[in-house]
Protein backbone atom coordinates (compact mmCIF):
# COMPACT_ATOMS: atom_id res chain seq x y z
CA UNK A 1 0.00 0.00 0.00
CA UNK A 2 1.45 3.34 -1.06
CA UNK A 3 1.64 6.14 1.50
CA UNK A 4 0.26 9.22 -0.23
CA UNK A 5 -0.08 11.38 2.89
CA UNK A 6 1.15 14.88 1.93
CA UNK A 7 3.09 15.34 5.21
CA UNK A 8 4.96 12.07 4.66
CA UNK A 9 5.93 13.01 1.10
CA UNK A 10 7.16 16.43 2.22
CA UNK A 11 9.24 14.85 5.00
CA UNK A 12 10.90 12.47 2.55
CA UNK A 13 11.62 15.33 0.16
CA UNK A 14 13.31 17.50 2.82
CA UNK A 15 15.28 14.52 4.07
CA UNK A 16 16.64 13.78 0.60
CA UNK A 17 17.48 17.43 0.03
CA UNK A 18 19.32 17.57 3.36
CA UNK A 19 21.30 14.44 2.55
CA UNK A 20 22.29 15.84 -0.84
CA UNK A 21 23.31 19.18 0.69
CA UNK A 22 25.46 17.49 3.34
CA UNK A 23 27.16 15.33 0.73
CA UNK A 24 27.92 18.40 -1.36
CA UNK A 25 29.42 20.26 1.60
CA UNK A 26 31.64 17.34 2.52
CA UNK A 27 32.97 17.15 -1.03
CA UNK A 28 33.59 20.90 -1.09
CA UNK A 29 35.56 21.05 2.15
CA UNK A 30 39.36 20.90 1.83
CA UNK A 31 40.74 17.59 3.03
CA UNK A 32 43.31 19.03 5.38
CA UNK A 33 42.59 16.82 8.36
CA UNK A 34 43.05 19.95 10.50
CA UNK A 35 46.77 19.76 9.79
CA UNK A 36 49.21 22.43 10.92
CA UNK A 37 52.24 24.11 9.35
CA UNK A 38 55.03 25.28 11.67
CA UNK A 39 57.63 27.80 10.51
CA UNK A 40 60.95 27.71 12.41
CA UNK A 41 62.89 30.99 12.57
CA UNK A 42 66.43 31.11 13.95
CA UNK A 43 68.12 33.97 15.78
CA UNK A 44 71.02 36.33 15.20
CA UNK A 45 73.99 34.56 13.57
CA UNK A 46 72.00 31.32 13.53
CA UNK A 47 70.73 29.11 10.72
CA UNK A 48 68.11 26.48 9.96
CA UNK A 49 70.59 23.83 11.12
CA UNK A 50 70.20 25.02 14.73
CA UNK A 51 66.79 23.35 14.95
CA UNK A 52 68.21 20.02 13.81
CA UNK A 53 71.44 19.77 15.79
CA UNK A 54 69.60 20.75 18.98
CA UNK A 55 67.20 17.83 18.64
CA UNK A 56 64.18 20.15 18.32
CA UNK A 57 63.09 18.72 14.96
CA UNK A 58 63.67 15.15 16.18
CA UNK A 59 61.09 15.73 18.91
CA UNK A 60 58.64 17.07 16.34
CA UNK A 61 59.14 14.08 14.07
CA UNK A 62 58.78 11.63 16.96
CA UNK A 63 55.42 13.30 17.64
CA UNK A 64 54.28 12.69 14.06
CA UNK A 65 55.32 15.92 12.36
CA UNK A 66 56.90 15.62 8.94
CA UNK A 67 59.86 17.59 7.64
CA UNK A 68 58.75 19.89 4.81
CA UNK A 69 62.27 21.05 4.04
CA UNK A 70 64.29 24.26 4.10
CA UNK A 71 63.95 27.62 2.40
CA UNK A 72 67.11 29.71 2.29
CA UNK A 73 65.96 33.31 1.88
CA UNK A 74 69.58 34.51 1.82
CA UNK A 75 70.64 32.48 -1.21
CA UNK A 76 67.07 32.43 -2.58
CA UNK A 77 67.09 28.64 -2.77
CA UNK A 78 64.79 25.87 -1.60
CA UNK A 79 65.14 22.28 -0.52
CA UNK A 80 61.49 21.31 -0.21
CA UNK A 81 60.46 17.72 0.33
CA UNK A 82 57.60 16.11 -1.61
CA UNK A 83 54.33 15.88 0.30
CA UNK A 84 51.95 12.95 0.14
CA UNK A 85 48.60 14.53 -0.73
CA UNK A 86 46.69 11.45 0.40
CA UNK A 87 48.06 11.67 3.93
CA UNK A 88 47.59 15.12 5.52
CA UNK A 89 49.97 15.62 8.41
CA UNK A 90 51.47 18.32 10.56
CA UNK A 91 54.50 19.75 8.76
CA UNK A 92 57.42 21.97 9.78
CA UNK A 93 59.73 24.11 7.67
CA UNK A 94 63.05 25.63 8.72
CA UNK A 95 64.01 28.97 7.22
CA UNK A 96 67.37 30.63 6.71
CA UNK A 97 67.08 34.39 7.21
CA UNK A 98 69.61 37.22 6.78
CA UNK A 99 70.05 37.32 10.55
CA UNK A 100 72.33 40.37 10.56
CA UNK A 101 69.70 42.47 8.78
CA UNK A 102 67.03 44.62 10.40
CA UNK A 103 63.81 43.09 11.72
CA UNK A 104 61.90 44.64 8.82
CA UNK A 105 64.16 43.10 6.18
CA UNK A 106 63.92 39.69 7.85
CA UNK A 107 60.11 39.97 7.99
CA UNK A 108 60.08 40.71 4.26
CA UNK A 109 62.15 37.58 3.59
CA UNK A 110 59.73 35.61 5.78
CA UNK A 111 56.88 36.86 3.60
CA UNK A 112 58.66 35.67 0.46
CA UNK A 113 59.18 32.23 2.00
CA UNK A 114 55.53 31.92 3.01
CA UNK A 115 54.47 32.60 -0.57
CA UNK A 116 56.26 29.38 -1.46
CA UNK A 117 55.05 27.36 1.52
CA UNK A 118 51.39 28.26 2.00
CA UNK A 119 50.20 27.17 -1.48
CA UNK A 120 51.34 23.67 -0.52
CA UNK A 121 48.99 23.69 2.51
CA UNK A 122 45.66 25.31 1.61
CA UNK A 123 43.38 25.72 4.59
CA UNK A 124 45.88 24.43 7.15
CA UNK A 125 46.66 26.19 10.43
CA UNK A 126 49.85 28.27 10.54
CA UNK A 127 52.21 28.41 13.53
CA UNK A 128 55.40 30.42 14.04
CA UNK A 129 58.22 29.31 16.33
CA UNK A 130 61.08 31.75 16.68
CA UNK A 131 64.28 31.65 18.68
CA UNK A 132 65.76 34.92 20.01
CA UNK A 133 65.44 37.65 17.35
CA UNK A 134 63.53 35.18 15.17
CA UNK A 135 60.63 35.35 17.61
CA UNK A 136 60.46 39.14 17.27
CA UNK A 137 60.61 38.82 13.48
CA UNK A 138 57.58 36.52 13.55
CA UNK A 139 55.65 38.85 15.88
CA UNK A 140 56.43 41.84 13.67
CA UNK A 141 55.20 39.90 10.65
CA UNK A 142 51.94 39.02 12.39
CA UNK A 143 51.32 42.66 13.32
CA UNK A 144 51.94 43.78 9.74
CA UNK A 145 49.81 40.99 8.25
CA UNK A 146 46.86 40.79 10.67
CA UNK A 147 44.60 39.02 8.18
CA UNK A 148 46.89 36.02 7.93
CA UNK A 149 45.20 33.28 10.01
CA UNK A 150 48.03 32.41 12.40
CA UNK A 151 46.98 29.92 15.05
CA UNK A 152 49.96 30.39 17.39
CA UNK A 153 53.26 32.13 17.98
CA UNK A 154 55.88 30.56 20.22
CA UNK A 155 59.01 32.54 21.05
CA UNK A 156 62.10 31.11 22.72
CA UNK A 157 64.37 33.47 24.68
CA UNK A 158 63.31 36.38 22.46
CA UNK A 159 64.16 40.03 23.31
CA UNK A 160 60.63 41.45 23.11
CA UNK A 161 61.55 44.44 25.24
CA UNK A 162 65.09 44.67 23.92
CA UNK A 163 68.41 43.77 25.44
CA UNK A 164 71.47 45.54 26.76
CA UNK A 165 73.56 43.19 24.63
CA UNK A 166 72.38 45.04 21.51
CA UNK A 167 73.37 48.37 23.05
CA UNK A 168 76.83 47.11 23.96
CA UNK A 169 77.30 45.82 20.42
CA UNK A 170 76.29 49.22 19.03
CA UNK A 171 78.85 50.92 21.25
CA UNK A 172 81.51 48.52 20.03
CA UNK A 173 80.55 49.18 16.41
CA UNK A 174 80.89 52.94 16.99
CA UNK A 175 84.27 52.61 18.70
CA UNK A 176 87.79 52.23 17.25
CA UNK A 177 87.51 48.52 18.15
CA UNK A 178 85.26 48.02 15.12
CA UNK A 179 88.28 48.47 12.86
CA UNK A 180 89.80 45.31 14.32
CA UNK A 181 86.58 43.26 14.38
CA UNK A 182 87.56 41.29 11.29
CA UNK A 183 90.86 40.27 12.86
CA UNK A 184 89.02 38.66 15.76
CA UNK A 185 86.26 37.06 13.70
CA UNK A 186 83.71 39.58 14.93
CA UNK A 187 82.95 41.42 11.70
CA UNK A 188 79.28 40.69 12.36
CA UNK A 189 79.34 43.60 14.82
CA UNK A 190 79.72 45.99 11.91
CA UNK A 191 77.22 44.15 9.71
CA UNK A 192 74.46 43.93 12.33
CA UNK A 193 74.06 47.55 13.35
CA UNK A 194 70.56 47.87 11.86
CA UNK A 195 69.40 44.86 13.86
CA UNK A 196 71.04 46.09 17.06
CA UNK A 197 69.25 49.42 16.72
CA UNK A 198 65.94 47.57 16.45
CA UNK A 199 66.70 45.52 19.58
CA UNK A 200 67.83 48.22 22.02
CA UNK A 201 65.84 48.27 25.23
CA UNK A 202 62.33 49.62 24.81
CA UNK A 203 62.10 53.41 25.23
CA UNK A 204 59.93 56.12 23.64
CA UNK A 205 60.77 56.36 19.97
CA UNK A 206 62.53 53.00 19.71
CA UNK A 207 61.48 50.30 17.25
CA UNK A 208 60.25 47.94 19.97
CA UNK A 209 58.42 50.70 21.81
CA UNK A 210 56.29 51.26 18.71
CA UNK A 211 55.88 47.57 17.87
CA UNK A 212 54.82 46.66 21.40
CA UNK A 213 51.94 49.13 21.26
CA UNK A 214 50.58 47.97 17.93
CA UNK A 215 47.41 45.88 17.78
CA UNK A 216 48.33 42.18 17.77
CA UNK A 217 46.05 39.69 16.00
CA UNK A 218 44.15 37.02 17.86
CA UNK A 219 46.29 33.89 18.31
CA UNK A 220 47.76 31.63 20.95
CA UNK A 221 50.90 33.33 22.27
CA UNK A 222 53.51 31.20 24.05
CA UNK A 223 56.78 32.44 25.55
CA UNK A 224 59.52 30.03 26.59
CA UNK A 225 61.70 31.86 29.08
CA UNK A 226 65.18 30.93 30.31
CA UNK A 227 65.83 31.43 34.00
CA UNK A 228 68.87 31.16 36.23
CA UNK A 229 69.40 28.03 38.29
CA UNK A 230 72.15 26.25 40.19
CA UNK A 231 72.65 23.82 37.31
CA UNK A 232 72.51 26.32 34.44
CA UNK A 233 73.84 29.89 34.19
CA UNK A 234 70.62 31.00 32.52
CA UNK A 235 70.40 33.38 29.59
CA UNK A 236 73.24 35.89 29.56
CA UNK A 237 72.11 37.51 26.28
CA UNK A 238 68.45 38.41 26.88
CA UNK A 239 67.08 39.25 30.36
CA UNK A 240 64.14 37.25 31.65
CA UNK A 241 61.69 40.17 31.72
CA UNK A 242 62.36 40.82 28.02
CA UNK A 243 61.74 37.19 27.05
CA UNK A 244 58.25 37.20 28.58
CA UNK A 245 55.71 38.41 26.00
CA UNK A 246 53.31 39.18 28.84
CA UNK A 247 55.45 42.25 29.42
CA UNK A 248 54.59 43.50 25.92
CA UNK A 249 51.96 46.13 26.64
CA UNK A 250 49.72 45.02 23.75
CA UNK A 251 49.78 41.37 24.90
CA UNK A 252 49.40 41.61 28.66
CA UNK A 253 47.30 38.74 29.98
CA UNK A 254 47.23 36.97 26.60
CA UNK A 255 50.47 34.97 26.82
CA UNK A 256 51.24 31.54 28.25
CA UNK A 257 54.69 31.83 29.81
CA UNK A 258 56.76 28.70 30.45
CA UNK A 259 59.97 29.01 32.46
CA UNK A 260 62.90 26.64 32.47
CA UNK A 261 66.65 26.60 32.97
CA UNK A 262 68.99 26.79 30.06
CA UNK A 263 71.49 28.88 28.19
CA UNK A 264 70.75 31.10 25.18
CA UNK A 265 70.14 28.44 22.58
CA UNK A 266 67.52 26.09 21.12
CA UNK A 267 66.84 22.95 23.19
CA UNK A 268 65.04 19.70 22.43
CA UNK A 269 62.94 20.31 25.55
CA UNK A 270 61.61 23.47 23.92
CA UNK A 271 59.80 21.31 21.38
CA UNK A 272 58.34 19.11 24.11
CA UNK A 273 57.03 22.12 26.06
CA UNK A 274 55.62 23.65 22.89
CA UNK A 275 53.74 20.54 21.77
CA UNK A 276 52.28 20.03 25.23
CA UNK A 277 51.07 23.65 25.34
CA UNK A 278 49.58 23.53 21.85
CA UNK A 279 47.41 20.59 22.93
CA UNK A 280 45.73 22.64 25.66
Fold and architecture overview:
This protein has 280 residues and is an alpha/beta fold. The protein has one domain: Alpha/Beta hydrolase fold, catalytic domain (Rossmann fold). It is built from eleven helices and eight strands. It has an eight-stranded mixed sheet with strand order 3-2-4-1-5-6-7-8, sandwiched between helices. It is globular. The N and C termini lie far apart (57 Å). The N terminus is likely disordered.
Mean pLDDT: 85
Shape: globular
Q: What is the second-level CATH architecture?
A: 3-Layer(aba) Sandwich
Portion in beta strands: 15-25%
Terminus-to-terminus distance: 57 Å
How many DSSP E strands?
A: 8
SS class: alpha/beta
CATH class: Alpha Beta
Helical run tally: 11
Radius of gyration of CA atoms, rounded to a whole number = 23 Å
- Going by CATH, the homologous superfamily would be Alpha/Beta hydrolase fold, catalytic domain
Short summary of the structure?
This protein is α/β, with parallel strands linked by helices and 280 residues long.
Descriptive tags:
single chain, 280 residues, alpha/beta, Rossmann fold, 8-stranded mixed sheet, 11 helices, globular, disordered N terminus
Write the layout of secondary structure elements.
Elements: H1 6-28, E1 36-41, H2 49-53, H3 56-62, E2 66-72, E3 77-80, E4 91-96, H4 103-117, E5 125-131, H5 133-144, E6 150-156, H6 164-173, H7 188-191, H8 193-198, H9 207-211, E7 220-227, H10 240-243, E8 255-261, H11 268-278
Parallel strand pairs: 1-4, 1-5, 2-4, 5-6, 6-7, 7-8
Antiparallel strand pairs: 2-3
Helix pairs in contact: 3-11, 4-5
